[in-house]
Amino acid sequence: MLRYAQMQSTQQTETVMTSRRALLQGMALAPFASACSSGPRTSARNFTPSGLPLRRVIVSPDRVIRTIAGSRPFRPSGFRLEAESFGDKTVIHNYGHGGGGITLSGGTSYLAMELAEQSAHRRCAVLGAGAVGLAAARLLQDRGWIVTIYARDLPPNTTSNIAGGQWSPTSVYDDDKVTPQFTAQFEAAMRHAYRYFQNLAGPRYGVRWISNYSIANQPPTADNFNDRYADMYPELKNLSANQHPFAADYVRHYDTMLIEPAIYLPAMMQDFYAAGGEIVIREFKGQDDALSLSEPVLINCTGLGSRNIFPDDELMPIKGQLSFLLPQEEIDYMTVGNGGLYMFPREDGILLGGTFKRNDWTTTPDPEDTARIIAGHAEFFDAMDDPWSR
Length: 390
Ligand SMILES: Cc1cc2nc3c(=O)[nH]c(=O)nc-3n(C[C@H](O)[C@H](O)[C@H](O)COP(=O)(O)OP(=O)(O)OC[C@H]3O[C@@H](n4cnc5c(N)ncnc54)[C@H](O)[C@@H]3O)c2cc1C
What we know:
Shape: elongated
Structural class: alpha/beta
Oligomer: single chain
Bound molecules: flavin-adenine dinucleotide
Radius of gyration: 22 Å
Number of domains: 2
Order of helices and strands: HEEEHEHEHHEHEEHEHEHEEEEEH
CATH architecture of the largest domain: 3-Layer(aba) Sandwich
CATH class of the largest domain: Alpha Beta
Number of helices: 10
């Protein structure tokens, strides 16, 4: 039954995606066709490598529809992914993903599931209902586990709902704080996560491939992250000035996935319920409270909340702030880097970021940051060459 429903939804997905792509590619071809007549004069620099037009984001304060802020759950030595025994109970920690928790959720949760499979039990509690908890819960269900989620907050009220959603396992650790063991775990998680989200591509989960333009004022360093993991960044290339429309000295292109939290998280909850899962709203006040659960295996996916449940002084927030502009259908690429700023085009608005404030526990937007993010993006997109709006 479920399989049939999933197949149907996949077919619908393909139809919708094909028609959207056909529409955008039609738009892309139109200027070439009209170049002979009176249409805008375009060149290859005005299109993504897939042939989609690179249009200007219209940035102005009166187009802002909301501004939000949240806390990335960061540990300088990287996320905590390990089993801990408490008498007859096993706790599998799966938290502290920093700025890459949406990205890595399917990967660290896969590894957490493998740790759980080493026990003789098939019944567990997942603590937390953000991207990490929901991925862990679904992966365990698919292995035949009976899963109950316990969480203080559900989507849309989790940090995972604040996330931008670029598939990018970055801002996850400090280079000088990680061990070789962590790096091996990180790379395994990254590879599982890369496959995990590819399986979910399409409107049902709000996951899609998209061109990224990385904007910089200096050339990439020799051992930069994208080059190191180039097999997970298709279409990775440095662009010369006649290959992009931006007023920037160094521009790189690659494709990543964009995961829209407002679509992905509810779909995961639906899947969890459909597979027989139960969700209990509950706040844990500390370790003893969590260990009082009846389940023999606990998967701890409480993000920043872990700090107060299973003591961990290393865990800290990195505050991030986003402003959303009215959606623009014609924008189908992302910009990152750009002096710490980034733009992701989502169904629920054009997302403009960026702030990274360590140890800032506040979750209210700072008006000065809002002004800087809007002004920085306005300057950048005003300087972009968009022949369709000349
Ligand atoms: C501005 C911003 C932009 C970001 N952009 C990206 C991005 O582009 N890509 C990316 O991969 N990541 C991004 N992130 C990071 C990402 O949001 C986090 O890493 C991720 O959401 C962490 O997921 P989580 O499930 O561990 O935590 P959460 O989403 O915080 O979920 C934690 C769950 O645990 C529950 N919980 C916590 N404490 C308790 C308690 N005491 N008792 C019971 N339940 C509890 C909560 O209620 C919740 O259900 C961004 C973050 C921010 C703030």
